[in-house]
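re: ur question from yesterday

yeah so i grabbed the chain u mentioned. its 292 aa long if i counted rite. heres the sequnce exactly as i have it in my notes:
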Amino acid sequence: MNILFIGIGKMGLPMATHLKNAGHIVKVRDLNPEQVKLAQLIGIEESSSDEDFNWADWIISSMPNDDAFRSIAKVISEKSNSNAKYIDTSTISIAASAYAANLLGEKNISYLRVAVSGNNHMAQAAKLTVLSSGPSDLYEDAKNLLSCWGEKIYYLGEQEQARLMKLVVNLMIAQTSAMLAEGLTLGRLGNLDWQDMWEVITNSAVGSPIMKAKMVQLGQPMGERDFSPTFTVEQMIKDLSLISQAGKDFGAPLVQTEQTLDWMYQSVNEGDGQLDYAAIIRLLERKAGLSN
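ran it thru and got these structure tokens back, copy pasting raw so excuse formatting
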């Protein structure tokens, strides 16, 4: 199939690459010329003509925020014909996605919401969890494409369910970091050994896959633990802000989540914004008077 892929950042480029490796003809667009060069190095062509919006059997986008997504949805509505099939994989608000659905629906452009759960390393390994919602027939048509990104693919409904499910998952990921921050700080204050705590936690009832992944990163001796980012504090603030807004829209009391968001902002203010989101562990340690 012919695929126009718009937005080839840390997630988009490996996803576009997997489509190419599956035998599809892929062209890409991105505002960052360096990302385009990376795509060209692996044999993916840059899209240089608006005719590609109608050349493509599928248009796929991966946008960094609501504003960028709204802009692309508008461009697609203006430049694509009514037979276009569009997949968006961005982490965006439910409101922005619903806006696009209305805009594209006026042009009879088919629109599948696809939220992917996982980081850029999982994208590179084609181990993402793929959450989909939108027209069921469009989902069936897209399944072969979606399977290029991961084996776990879910269809959740006709409207914005995929967007909301992604926010639910990310809420729980963020709260895992908050839980670790409080628990590990308590343990250190009571003279529990750092590595012993990680060993017990990951082999206990709370030893989830994300806990075990964080142990590899952080469960080393105190002087060797690694806060290099799989997903930064600043990126998590974006997601938590979307979650907070969804809570307000639906009337859900997200008290713990709001506290975690505040800790993330404090981490940025204290210089940890580009570290892994688990750096709120460092924040609580500092609050407790412990060395980092």
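noticed a couple things. Residues 62 and 90 are 5 Å apart (CA to CA). also The domain at 2-159 is CATH 3.40.50.720 (Rossmann fold).
anyway ttyl
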